[in-house]
Write a structure and sequence with these properties.
Elements lengths: L1 E3 L12 H8 E2 L7 E7 L4 E7 L5 E2 L15 E7 L4 E5 L2 E5 L4 E4 L6 E5 L11 E7 L7 E3 L5 E5 L8 E7 L10 E7 L5 E2 L4 E2 L3 E8 L7 E7 L2 E7 L4 E4 L6 E4 L4 E8 L8 E2 L7
Parallel strand pairs: 1-3
Antiparallel strand pairs: 2-21, 3-4, 4-11, 5-10, 6-9, 6-11, 7-8, 7-10, 9-12, 13-14, 14-15, 15-23, 16-22, 17-24, 18-21, 18-23, 19-20, 19-22
The site of zinc ion has 4 residues, from loops.
Catalytic activity: 5-dehydro-4-deoxy-D-glucuronate = 3-deoxy-D-glycero-2,5-hexodiulosonate
Family: Belongs to the KduI family.
Protein name: 4-deoxy-L-threo-5-hexosulose-uronate ketol-isomerase
Length: about 280
């Protein structure tokens, strides 16, 4: 598992493009027939891409987390960004259509992933997983795409009209730390999360998907008064430490999975600032 050690905002001004990308951008998370994982020491979040083809893939443990099973002291949220597939948790099969979200609670032992419809427009199932340490076991629960709490945000006039789906959150599927959902930009809107915010209580990760192969999202990061950018492609993720802005503009339409973990689970606990204060 790739290790990404935690960084301070003081490190950012000294980083060139390659180092910013090495620290905060996660590329190549999805490889056919493989489980790939990254451990960020920011709130000890694990990001994984699980891409079964033909035979199912099991999520085993990793030496870095020192446990017999992956979920011995962890929980996870999983969103399928590809064609329909299944996640089987200790013998119980859950069908995940594209965009659906499964919460897996602490204590699960055998968790396996399968693609069941690889021939459709979305290709084989591609499962994106975000995990954080968990102190207790909440029930494993599926939320179908679009069935969480929906918020309509932004305006077409400011090119940021979008639908935000909250799946794992305080008023929805319960968890110890993980908060997770999917936001999709409306046709013609390109900006996400603008006006932007930070939340010093939580690390957040974005996985951009449904972006055409030749398009990119220019993702803003860094402290609001010392911003930098990452150029991000389809199915690439960004690690956003608690002190970092996370907002982006696409050169084409896109969606993204957002997920957080840390001190609290209060979605609206954000430190907002005016666009005119960005530097
Ligand atoms: O479109 C948005 O705005 C978002 O999706 C915001 C993220 O959910 C977020 O940053 C939550 O803290
Ligand atoms: Zn945020």
């Amino acid at each position: 598992m790739d290790q990404r050690y935690a960084t301070s905002p003081d490190n950012v001004p000294g980083m060139d493009t390659a180092e910013l990308r090495r620290r905060y951008l996660v590329q190549d998370l999805f490889a056919p027939g493989e489980v790939r994982a990254v451990y960020t020491h920011h709130d000890r979040v694990v990001l994984a891409g699980i891409s079964p083809v033909g035979t199912p893939l099991e999520l085993g443990t990793f030496p870095e987390i020192r446990s017999e099973h992956f979920f011995d002291h962890r929980e996870a949220g999983i969103v399928n960004v590809g064609g329909t597939g299944t996640v089987t948790v200790d013998g119980v099969e859950h069908v995940l259509t594209k965009g659906s979200c499964l919460y897996v609670g602490r204590g699960a032992q055998v968790v396996s992933f399968a693609a069941t419809d690889a021939d459709g427009d979305d290709g084989a199932a591609s499962f994106y997983l975000i995990s954080a340490p968990a102190h207790t076991a909440y029930p494993t629960t599926l939320v179908e795409a679009g069935q969480g709490t929906q918020r309509e945000l932004g305006d077409a006039l400011t090119s940021n009209r979008r639908t935000l789906n909250q799946y794992i959150h305080e008023q929805g599927v319960r968890s110890c730390q993980v908060v997770m959902g999917v936001t999709r930009l409306h046709p013609g809107s390109m900006w996400n999360t603008m006006p932007a915010h930070t939340h010093d209580r939580r690390t957040e990760c974005y996985l951009y998907f449904d972006l055409p192969a030749d398009a990119r999202v220019i993702h803003l990061m860094g402290e609001p008064t010392e911003s930098r950018h990452l150029v991000v492609g389809d199915r690439e993720a960004v690690i956003s430490p608690s002190w970092s802005v996370h907002s982006g503009v696409g050169s084409a339409s896109y969606a993204f999975v957002w997920a957080m973990a840390g001190e609290n689970q209060s979605f609206d606990d954000m430190d907002g600032f005016a666009i005119s204060d960005l530097r």
